[in-house]
Amino acid sequence: MKERPPTEEEYLEWLSNPVTQVYRLYLRAYREALKEQWARGQFSETTIEGTALADAAVRGEVASLDRLMSLEFEQLIEGIDDE
Fold first, then answer.
1. CA distances (Å), 43 to each of 1, 5, 14, 29, 68, in order?
2. CA nearest neighbour of 75 among 6, 2, 4
3. pLDDT digit of tens for each residue in the chain (83 aa)?
4. What's the rounded Cα separation, in Å, for the pair 17 and 7?
């Protein structure tokens, strides 16, 4: 069974939910921790290639967290419609 997409009102209600707000705070803190670890060089590997791969992985994770935390209603609906 395919679920219907949320209305904009439902989406805004979800954003204001206390559990959602705490979860988003967690995502922000996790993102900042990753950035701090990266800045301290904690993702360095024994080879240049390994370090480059680890660096790319962390940057990708940070970018994904940024996208998730800034997701607008229209982007959500477009993403659902594309599937």
1. 43, 39, 35, 18, 23
2. 6
3. 368 889 999 999 999 999 999 999 999 999 999 999 988 888 888 899 988 998 899 999 999 999 999 999 999 998 887 65
4. 15
Q: Are 41 and 76 in contact (CB under 8 A)?
A: no
CB atoms under 10 Å from CB of 11, counted, come to 17
Q: Which two tokens stand for residue 83?
A: 């599937």
Is residue 1 classed exposed, middle or buried when 0-12, 13-18 and 19+ CB atoms within 10 A define those classes?
exposed
0.70 surpassed by pTM: yes
Distance CA 78, CA 20 (A): 21
